[in-house]
Design brief:
Length: 251
């Protein structure tokens, strides 16, 4: 139990990939701070599953598009645990419209949740990580950052910004023994995909074109996240690991 008494924060962990990552971290011995924005019931279910593995679960609500709410979240986290060893930046949102139909508030909302939040969460996470000699950060992104997907312009640009910030943070924080990376997923059938107007088409197309022969699952992304958080990835810095069964090589 080398991770006993260590603390992980997973944003957007009331469902989907975030929940999967939180549960996997609990299995590894981490106590887990479970963040949510809307679904308290979902966060409570994640907490229940975290506690089944003998880890402490702590639920915190915050709108991570707003810096003051990020500050409040980390102040609460510091009061509860006094430390942070792992930060999984998973919370995401965005407006799904063609670029010519985007309005200013659509753009700002998407960029703030998906890119700005990483910067200001990192600024608050670093002092807590330094208390115990370092830490690890992993963000979730998507192949829409490097490939053009229908209705995905705002989200794709925000994810590209997140991946760029990952590189800058990795270099700047290396001297503090803080590793920063990202995991990029292919099409995953989660609740978030239900908001895509072309969901069924995306799923059918991905099943047919993925060289690995199946869709990417939540567990595949959680595997990559846990690998990047492990000591086996100690020399991987500022990278975006693509977990898509090979489909981005074919489109």
């Amino acid at each position: 139990m080398e991770n006993k008494n260590k603390v992980a924060l997973v944003t957007g962990s009331s469902r989907g990939i975030g929940r999967e990552a939180a549960i996997r971290l609990a299995k590894e011995g981490y106590d887990v701070a479970i963040h949510y924005a809307r679904s308290k019931k979902g966060a409570e279910e994640t907490a229940r599953q975290v506690e089944e593995h003998g880890s402490k679960a702590f639920i915190v609500k915050a709108n991570v598009s707003k810096k003051e709410k990020i500050d409040e979240m980390f102040a609460t986290l510091e009061e509860e645990f006094g430390r942070l060893d792992v930060f999984v930046n998973n919370a995401a949102s965005g407006v799904l419209r063609p670029a010519m139909e985007l309005e200013e508030n659509h753009w700002d909302w998407t960029m703030n949740i998906n890119a700005k939040a990483l910067l200001f969460c990192a600024q608050r996470a670093v002092p807590l990580m330094e208390k115990n000699g370092g830490g690890r950060m992993v963000s979730l992104t998507s192949i829409g950052s490097i490939r053009v997907l229908d209705h995905y312009s705002a989200v794709g640009v925000s994810k590209a910004a997140l991946e760029s910030l990952t590189r800058y943070l990795a270099v700047e924080l290396a001297e503090k023994n803080i590793r920063v990376n990202a995991v990029s997923g292919g099409i995953v059938d989660t609740d978030a995909l239900a908001h895509f107007p072309n969901r069924d088409e995306l799923l059918e197309d991905s099943r047919a074109k993925t060289p690995a022969g199946r869709l990417v699952e939540r567990s595949d992304l959680a595997d990559a996240v846990l690998f990047l958080l492990s000591d086996r990835a100690s020399m991987i810095r500022g990278q975006t690991i693509v977990v898509d069964g090979g489909i981005s090589l074919c489109i």
